[in-house]
Amino acid sequence: MPNPWDPFPHPPQADADFMDTYSGVGAALSQWEALEFAFARIYSIFAGDPDGDGLQQYGEPRIFSLRISAFGAKAGGYFIRHPNQQTEGELGRIVRAATGFSDRRNEIAHGMVLDVKNIAYFRSRMPLIDTSQTCALLIPPWHTIRHHKPDGMPSYAYNANQMKEIATRIHDLEQQTDAFRKALLVLGRRKP
Description:
The protein is mostly helical. It has helices at residues 18-46, 54-58, 64-81, 85-110, 120-125, 160-190, and strands at 112-115, 136-139. The protein has one domain (18-190). It contains 6 helices and 2 strands, in the order ααααβαβα. Strands 1-2 form a two-stranded antiparallel sheet.
């Protein structure tokens, strides 16, 4: 089974309204921030001050890869003091999923919403494209070549439904992450 964070194929159709596409962007990015907050709350437990100063300490590194690295170091110290392989393994699964979703988040956060109806690449792949109306997709900007295939075409393109599906999947992970936090608090109360 593929991972829930794996890239989507290019969509079979575009959005007829820019606002739908922007709504998808907002849903995915807002849900990502909820997931980051769930990580901050766990970080504060690892720091020994649940929902205290650790919340902001988690956010000090500017990018997710640095935050999750600091999170891993703080978790390592916590699990040395409170060994529990099952709990540590569950956290590893959650961190792997979040790291996978961070690629989708970055695509969405750094993409641009564009009317693609006049781009031959999309016209040839979306046979139902109506050139008399808006055909909005989120795609990588042309100046970010690393997000384009060798033939110059975008490596990703999302319509509103796809981004809302990504938001739903991130929401599911955020719920699992918060359940982990609550279980961690219960485990912490059991320790002498």
